Amino acid sequence: MKKHLFSTLLAAMMVATCMAGCGNDTSDSQSSQSSSTETSGSADSSAAESGDAEADPYAEHLSFEVFTIDGSEDMMDYPLVKEACEKFNFDFTIQLVAWDNWDDVTRTLAATDSFPEVIAWYNLNYSEYVEWAQEGVFKALPSDMSAYPNLEALTEKYTIFQKLLVDDQLYAFPKIKNNNPYNEYDSYMFAYRRDWAQAMGLDYEPVQDMTWDEFKEYLQKVKEEDPGQLGDKLIPFDFENGGNSWCGFARKWNPYISGYKMVDGQYVWGAPDPTSMDAINEIKELYDTGLLAVDSYVDANNAGRERFLAGRSAVFYGNLGPSILQETANDMVNNIDGFEEEDLGLFTVKMEDGKYAVSQMDEWWGAFAFNHSCRDEVMDRWLAVGNWLLENEQIEKYAYGVEGEDWTKDENGNVTLNYTAEDASAGGSKAYITNQRTFQKFFILEGLDLFLEGNPNASDYVINDLFKKNMEVWESNPNYTPSNYDISYFSSPEKDAFASTLNGTSDNFIQAVLSDDPQATWDQFIKENQAQADKACAEINEVFGE
Amino acid sequence: MELAKKRHKKIEAFDVVNLIVLTALLVIVLVPFYLTVVQSFMTQQEYIMNTNTLWPKEPTLGNYRDIFVGSTMVRSFGNSVFYTVFGVIFSMILTTTLAYGLSKRNYPGRAIFQNMVIFTMYFSGGLIPFFLLVKQLGLINTRWSIVIPSALSIFNMIILRNFFEQLPPDLGEAATLDGAGPLRVFWQIDLPLVKPAMATLVLFYAVGRWNEWFNASLFLGNAKYWPMQLELRQILWSSTSIVGNIPPEVGRPSFSEGLKAAAVMITMLPIMMVYPFLQRYFVKGVMIGAIKS
């Protein structure tokens, strides 16, 4: 009898513990948030204070937390952050998240209503964003953004803002990838070693135009003549992530290979299009003739990029936005004996139709948002800081450091830096110049500073003679594929179920390239998945079909 | 003569096969380990030109320097030591006391307690209730969120309970007759006899604590409490930030393979150093001859 009574009591205790653990903590979090606002004076003086507030909208000091993958403890000491905190009268603490556990932590915090007031959101998942916005996880941004003109200008310039509206309200502010001011093209380009071309007697331009066949002939010539005298270490052509980049490269033949294509007013699965096999055959030819590194089909972690930077590859295909292109040039100058910036060139390659196959660049990556319980004044303060950071003066500060101390500008607008690259790198005395960029990345991704007038960090050759010229050549005759946000962000049961197959296109592409019978291998992939694709397309066409 | 014969025992085919298989296993284990050591001392340039080399032509400590640049690695190392030392002590206290109690067959309600405990091994509340519980306990963003919630491993407790159950009850009874109380019997008689099992569990717990990162990533928003594993993951991420879905504008790449190798060495060495100190306890036989009944 005693045993039964005892066990019943224990069971009841366990249930009570579980119930306590599942309780709501909203009141606690709300009280802690409101307590973090430091107000001076009593309620009697509130009228006078409101008068002050009108004169100075930032009279009240605010403290809040920011959820992010970026940031460090000394962040508050960075001059730009310090200035922002003083100017806008706030301070914040970082709730740091490890990148590779971002999804787990974010979802857990969303499910338990544990987000801090400000969320610097990385890798925003669109369907989750919509779901959480509808469920009230976030606080809507003001519909009138005129108080923040620089942010408002972005909302008008980029189409993604329209796509992020949920019930006509914006719940997250996407961080724009502002790295190509010339057009909407993405920056996946061919970089080549001009010094090696010259060594083979080819007087190529910094941006050398050629057809796909001429490109292949060039690679063959590199292989035969080995201008770098590397022997079996030579790789004529390299991709960013080897085989894992092949499917992306195949978009030059079939832009819809891992997505959906509109045919006669109806969306169909893109992979079965015959142009997929054209891409497979072309890449297989490169691979079988030894123009690609033999083990590169398993590459990851930028192995191809590292090989190019180290001087093993003659031509490299990958993301070469201005900042990356500049870094590529810098790294190659540092890594390769005798290599100069002008030894780096770009190829513009016309495909079989005589056009340059280009896609629309992704406009954004990540966003910042606000927890539903975020105070209005915190949201206002954060938006004001974001707006301020987009001013040219602030862009110069995060690019060069403290004006007068770290850099000076003459009457012609030429900037002189008072530090070396080593000073600004990790562990250096001026490391804050590099580190404080993380603060800017809360709001917008890098790229803005590269186009500042007289920026000594950006070379005229890299930015204008290479990047800009490449974009001009592409613009002369593009075969342009725009992004289709409607389809990308459309969610339905069968389409969502088919997403894993689309993600697996790359693996099947690699298998087809390596196969003795690529047609059969690819056909098998298509055959196995066509039925599911048809179901997904049926759902898409129900909404978007004509 | 006989002794000499024994010493020069004839080598049989089995011994040869055994030797070959064990040597092959040794090579399989040691070669990747050795290559990782070598890789951690290589420059990016040399690694890319000669990925599998026996020793770098120009060894560098650059990868180790890149990991330790700034003060966060030293601090996170200290955090990991804290979580390991205090976590293991706390875990062992809970494990030994619970296992000892459940090993006593005359303990009232033993079966109920045991089933309740074992139930949690098979069925957990899931991540969200776990997070809510830790939050309600006020442990979020404290070091104790790493030490307390995962302090007891039921699996380890069962192992230890079985060891306690194998102890002859006569020992405790004899001590009781001599005037020892239950605590003294536990502490001075029974506990020393399960040292091999405890040494094993200490190692299990220590390795688990040392490698801990998931709970830390969930409960610790303040990076000053982060253990070394989480810090290393962050460093590695920032070194390979062009990988996957992360745009290059977010971070800048460095020699990720070298950093990874250096990180593996830094992570592995301290916990490897614990083994020699515990190895002697693994040798069984403490009980042999202790009792004649």
- What would the CATH topology of the domain at 3-181 and 364-451 in chain A be? D-Maltodextrin-Binding Protein, domain 2
The level of helicity of chain B is: 55-70%
Outline of chain B: flat
Q: What is the tally of helical segments of chain A?
A: 24
User: Can you list the strand order of the major beta sheet of chain A?
Assistant: 2-1-3-15-6
- Rg calculated over all Cα atoms of chain B: 25 Å
Overall form of chain A: globular
Distance between the termini of chain B: 41 Å
CATH architecture of the domain at 3-181 and 364-451 in chain A: 3-Layer(aba) Sandwich
CATH class of the domain at 3-181 and 364-451 in chain A: Alpha Beta
Q: How much is the average pLDDT of chain B?
A: 83
> pLDDT under 50 segments of chain B (min length 5)?
241-253, 285-293
Tell me how many strands of chain A there are: 18
Seen as an oligomer or otherwise, the chain set is: heterodimer
What Rg of chain A is obtained from the alpha carbons, in whole angstroms? 27 Å
Q: What is the CATH architecture assignment of chain B? A: Orthogonal Bundle
What does this structure look like?
Chain A is of the alpha/beta class and 546 residues long. Chain A has a domain at 3-181 and 364-451: D-Maltodextrin-Binding Protein, domain 2 (3-Layer(aba) Sandwich). In chain A, the strands form 6 sheets. Chain A has a 5-stranded mixed sheet with strand order 2-1-3-15-6. Chain A has a 5-stranded mixed sheet with strand order 8-13-7-12-9, sandwiched between helices. In chain A, strand 4 (165-166) and strand 5 form a beta hairpin. Chain A is globular and about 70 Å long. Chain B is mainly α and 293 residues long. Chain B has a single domain (72-292), classed as MetI-like (MetI-like fold), CATH 1.10.3720. Chain B is 68% helix and 0% strand. Chain B has 16 helices and no strands. The radius of gyration of chain B is 25 Å and the shape is flat. At the A-B interface, helix 1, strand 2, helix 5, helix 13 and helix 14 of A face helix 3, helix 6, helix 7, helix 13 and helix 14 of B.
